[in-house]
Amino acid sequence: MFSFWNTAEPILFIIQFAFGLRFKFHSKVTESQYENLAKSAFQEVKSHLIYFKAEDSIKASEEMYFRHLKHELKRSGEFYVFLEGEIHLKLLKKFHLEEINRINYFLIHSFFFIHGYNKIFKYLIFKERIRKLLRKKYTFLHYLSITGWRNLNASELVTKVKEIKKIKPLWNDRYLIPKNINFAKDKPTISKAIDNVLAKGKISEKSIFNLATSEKLVFIHKYGEGFSEVYNQQVEERNKLKHQIEKYKTSKSKVTARRLKIKKDKLSALNTEWLKAPIGVSLENYGFQKLFNKMEGVYVLPLSLLPEKYQNNIEAFLQEVVIQKAKNYIKDSINNGNQFLSEENKDLKYLIYSHIVPVHEINILTEKRNVEISSPTLSRMLFTSYLANENSKVSSLYINDVVRNVDVKTLLKNNKTDNYIKSNFDNLKIILWENHNIDILKPFRLVGLLDNQIDDITETLLEIDNSIKKYLLRKKLKDIVSFYKKLNDEINEIKK
Fold first, then answer.
1. How far apart are CA 196 and CA 403, in angstroms?
2. For tag attachment on the chain, is the N or C end more exposed, with fewer CB atoms within 10 Å?
3. Which long-range CB contacts under 8 A does 292-297 form with residues at least 24 apart?
4. Considering only CA atoms, which of 111, 138, 109 is closest in space to residue 124?
5. Could you tell me which residues are beta bridge partners of residue 108?
6. Residues contacting 417, CB < 8 A, separation 6+
7. Terminal C-alpha separation, the chain
8. Contacts of 51 (CB under 8 A, 6+ apart)
9. pLDDT above 70 (res 254)
10. DSSP letter assigned to residue 368
11. Residues in Cβ contact with 317 at an 8 Å cutoff, skipping those fewer than 6 apart
């Protein structure tokens, strides 16, 4: 019946949360820490209500809410003890949320879903699924079945939910993503969709950190590889070749033309065989990413993406995998006759620090900066790691909600053809609905369009606005449909 509750942890959480027990998954903080957390929680839930235009349900000052909360939270000596997200839940329940068609439950449940408070969301959705089995109306799952629910305000949702007679089967879909999967290589369209979702803020980095609280990160700091001399020699040679190429370009003699080709070939070979710091190459080839673009030498990877035999022995992983591959990189470069490697730099040199940090122990402090500008790479790794390791229906909801339904507009760039589609988006939306019964807000349905139907859509759109060439518009529409077809195929491959 509830196949996604296939581990003891969710049940344990439900029991302790329902009965107010405190023996696992809890946080223990001091008075000052509680105040900072409470202020942060208040701002988060307030922003959520503003997004759905329900902020008028906050009837008192945040200080008054904080005083009430202090009396409700459990204490252990001088510490406040609570579960992750519990402060947010208590605040939301204290606000005067409208109750019509259970919109209050939607506002509460959607907060924990959107912001990635996974354990409490599981607890809440568990109760909603029981309500659904009892054939009760207006569960959170009914609200999720509203087309484009993220783009509607509370009053619109209250009306729209009455049209939902049956929960869409889509929300019951189950996906199993293989562990240790390289999304960019094995599922490139899903990887592109996730990058798109992250770039457009459909799911924030803060939400991903909340989702991935059970994950651990491997940080590698590597220094002193002694490759600066090799790098400088390569730069000097590249600049020399570029200078010669520019000089030869001004001459029209056949001799100079031959020399120009030789220099261009040498420059191409130099760029192809460009030597990088061997350990950095080894780490990046394995999947480690620089934490920040301008932070040389600091690499990160979720621990779960390492082979299981190395997850408790990082030193062995470094010696047997990273260092060995770095040595092979130098050896192969020497065998290929690379001119920049000499006796002095053919041996590996390095200083490496490594440590493992649980995600829930990472504290993020910001001032006039958003977390999202820090490390998109880390966000992508944590989100894909969560999808691969979270064996539950909830991870499938994220695939359906934010990955499968990538907004068509976010696929459009700033060029003439794409700008044409942007300006005619409402016309395209009407054509798709009236002629093909396709709601563009559920874009995965575009996969059913055939080439001749795309041709018809192109013709109809050009009748309204013919300011673009037909072949360009047709090609762009076909590219969009092709993206969703590939995405759908990859998603179906991991569908249970």
1. 9
2. N
3. 292/374, 292/375, 297/221, 297/222, 297/223
4. 109
5. none
6. 468, 472, 473, 475, 476
7. 16
8. none
9. yes
10. S
11. 306, 307, 310
Main-chain phi, psi angles of 303, to 5 degrees: -60, -35
Q: The tokens 């992983």 sit on which residue? A: 317
**In sequence order, which residues have a C-beta less than 8 Å from that of residue 438 and are 6 or more positions away?**
432, 445, 446, 448, 449
Strands (E), 349-466: 351-358
Is the CA virtual torsion 152, 443, 410, 116 positive or negative? positive
Joined together, the tokens standing for residue 471 give 């072949």
Task: Tell me how far apart the alpha carbons of residues 220 and 81 are, in angstroms, rounded to a whole number.
Answer: 34
Please identify which residue in the block is written with the tokens 């969009």: 480
Q: What span, in angstroms and rounded, lies between the C-alpha atoms of 327 and 347?
A: 8
Comparing 10-14, 160-164, 326-330, 491-495, the range with the smallest average pLDDT is: 10-14
Q: How far is CA 191 from its chain centroid? A: 9
| 193 residue type, one letter | A
Res. 496: pLDDT tops 90: no
Contacts of 422 (CB under 8 A, 6+ apart): 409, 412
Fill in the amino acid letter for 330: I
Q: In what order do the strands lie in the sheet with 79-83?
A: 26-29, 79-83, 74-76
Q: What is the pLDDT of residues 291-335, one digit of tens each?
A: 776 667 889 888 988 888 999 999 999 999 999 999 998 888 888
Residue 371 Rama label (left phi>0; alpha psi -120 to 50; beta): alpha
Closest CA to 65 of 44, 45, 95: 95
Sign of CA dihedral 378, 382, 388, 389: positive
- Report residue 225 as tokens: 């590889």
**Residue 374: CB atoms within 10 Å:** 15
Say if CB 215 and CB 223 are below 8 A apart: no
> What is the DSSP secondary-structure string of 194-228?
HHHHHHTTSS-HHHHHHHTTT-EEEEEEEE----H
CA distance 238 to 244: 10
The phi, psi pair for 353, rounded to 5°, reads: -115, 140
327 or 32, which is more confident? Answer: 327
Output the average pLDDT for the chain: 84
Residue 5 has pLDDT above 70, yes or no: no
- Residues 409-458: pLDDT tens digits? 989 999 999 999 999 999 999 999 999 999 898 888 899 999 999 999 99
Is the pLDDT at 18 greater than 80, yes or no?
no
Find the angle CA(428)-CA(433)-CA(434) to the nearest 5 degrees: 100
What global pTM score does this model have? 0.77
Element holding 29 (H helix, E strand): strand 26-29
DSSP-derived 3-state class of residue 77: coil
Contact 117, 125 (CB under 8 A): no
User: Tens of pLDDT along 366-413?
Assistant: 566 655 445 677 788 888 888 887 777 888 888 888 888 888 998 999
